[in-house]
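[Automated response] Your request has been received and processed.

Submitted sequence:
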Amino acid sequence: MLRRILRYWMSLALFVNVLACSNDKQKLVGIWHTEFEAVPHLMSAFDVELRHDFFSDSWSGRFEIPESMAEGTLSGINITDSKIFLDLGQGATFTGSLSKNKTEIKGMLNIPDHKSETLTLRKTDRWSSQRPARIDKENHAILNWNYQYPPLNNDGWKVAAMNLETTNFKALHDLFDNILKGKYHGLDALLVAQNGKLLLDEYFYLGDRERIHSLQSCTKSVTSLLIGIAQNDGLIQNLDAPLTAFFPSYKNSIKEKFPQPTLRNALTMSAGLDWHEDIPYTDPKNDAVLMNQSKDMYRYVLAKNLDGKDKPGKKFEYNSGLSILLGGILSNVTGKPADKYAEQSLFKELGIETFAWTSMNKQIHTGGGLFLRPRDMLKIGQLVLDKGKWNEKQIVPTSWITESTAFVLPINESSSDWGYGYQWWRGVFRVKEKVLPVIYAAGYGGQMLYIVPDLNLSILTLHHNASDVTGSHSLTWKDIEKSILPAFI
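Generated structure:
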């Protein structure tokens, strides 16, 4: 009997001890939030969700850095007592400790090519990316939209009021009401300019007029403008020169190809390389991801073999590596990193003072690393509409705008409507009986700049939708056709 009693009390003590440990672990379960300077001039949310399985005593979780389009499942979690280690993948880690009062996690965030950040995370009840679309001064959600005349912001934009009496305005109004009610919960900014004047200047969720925003692969189209300026400056003589001619320091270490892909092939993404970017970016075989993880992005791309199926110049194949090489070419011919050349030759002329441009191992990421304020990015659309001019000043040669935005190659064989130029996409909008050619820049996560010459119109949409591959909460091409364009025809 005594043994049974002792065994009972020992089991009870063990259970209480396990329960106490479990209670400590429960304090860690949930969403933890802080902010840090993800890129210069941009404070970004850093959210981590931790989940604990009581029965297996295992941890799982995910993270979001929404302003940088970074999110995913935690690759590894190690929690010992109050010590916490989180593996965010691709070399990024967080190492910290739970405070004695269990209300804070203090630690160090380490991201490759980024300075280490000392952070303090605190519990929150929701992801930063899922806050209301807009809130009022009392922190209540705003659910109805009223048109606001864009402010004159001393940034070079002329502004005007749009016509609210048009019969098609209701569709636009309904769209904005749906945005405020949460249907498009990844949308950060929607801007429209027509006839050289800003008419719509709307911000939601993580967007703000004065905040820079990730452009992702819209960066490629800005890079194309820089190539045109460099050519006009006499720094690039021949678009049909082989790519290797612009990288003399790699000449002895990169295997010669025949035929050699050219600068023009890089601009049109038709270099014919053995390149795999048509698979998910979460796939470790994706060449764009492998390139970003390499020690030398230029070498990674230049070392690629030809695919053996199509000669350079014959077929479009999406290849962010070629856009990266354009940055290397700019650096080699100008003697400046691409971001510095952009600042001096393009941004200064457009009145763009605040921007960030990320790099990998000191190589500027001209495939997707640019961050601009929304109104500044819309200037790129106006620049194209005005054949290289901004406020009557010629910045990019007219000939380059015409040549670079032309339909050069179809992106597939199934439709003649969709094509590619020099880092610019081509397509068509269909609004009732009208077929409207469109030049556009497109970026991962819902970054889109549409340029419609027939309407003298440009539209910018910015999102933080890294995982929205179906368009379930992004403004899609159909939304532009159905709800936005009719109000400006």
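Summary generated for your ticket: The mean pLDDT is 92. The two ends are 91 Å apart (CA to CA).
If you did not submit this request, please reply to this message.
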